[in-house]
Specification:
6 helices, Arp2/3 complex 21 kDa subunit ARPC3
């Protein structure tokens, strides 16, 4: 059988195409998970607009495996989906919180001299996301939203831990499926 050799320029095009396909797949996954989170029943003890943030698993994985820019693209597209479904204020809050948590996770992953657990990454992303959303809502709505701060931090600790555990258990399968190993 004859071997096929790719020119360097063709190899770069192939890598770019593969990266674009991965980003598209991960966008679809993040949007699907975000949509399914919106279907969850919110209990009365939960803060308004509460979502567990499971779609951030995709962002955390993409930041780690592909890079910051693809994760920003996924976060932005996921926020545009929120704009179409829930309106402008939800879009602004989703975009600001999502971008902030993506940058924090990226910066934490860049600290390579220490081992950072996935649970710590999940909690850091959740707390950042919630604090930025609280800040944005204090500008848009009223500074009185800061009364939610203890409740929001408690839920960020719970959901961030859960997200971290999920990414830890799912990552080996994602690596295997998408061939990042």
């Amino acid at each position: 059988m004859k071997k096929i050799y790719l020119k360097k320029s063709n190899l770069k095009i192939r890598q770019k195409t593969q990266t674009l396909c991965f980003i598209s797949i991960f966008c679809a996954l993040a949007i699907s998970i975000s949509f399914m989170e919106g279907l969850l029943i919110i209990l009365p003890i939960m803060p308004p607009g509460f979502k567990p943030g499971f779609s951030n698993i995709i962002t955390m994985f993409v930041v780690n495996c592909i890079g910051l820019f693809p994760a920003i693209v996924i976060t932005t597209i996921k926020s545009l989906f929120v704009l179409l479904n829930k309106g402008t204020i939800a879009f602004i809050m989703s975009l600001c919180g999502g971008l902030g948590s993506t940058f924090v996770i990226y910066l934490l992953l860049k600290i390579r001299n220490t081992k950072i657990s996935s649970i710590f990454l999940g909690i850091s992303g959740a707390i950042t996301h919630n604090l930025i959303q609280l800040f944005v809502s204090s500008i848009i709505i009223s500074p009185s939203v800061y009364y939610y701060l203890p409740c929001i931090i408690l839920f960020a600790l719970i959901t961030g831990s859960l997200t971290g555990l999920l990414i830890k258990s799912i990552s080996p399968y994602l690596y295997k499926v998408f061939g990042f190993i």
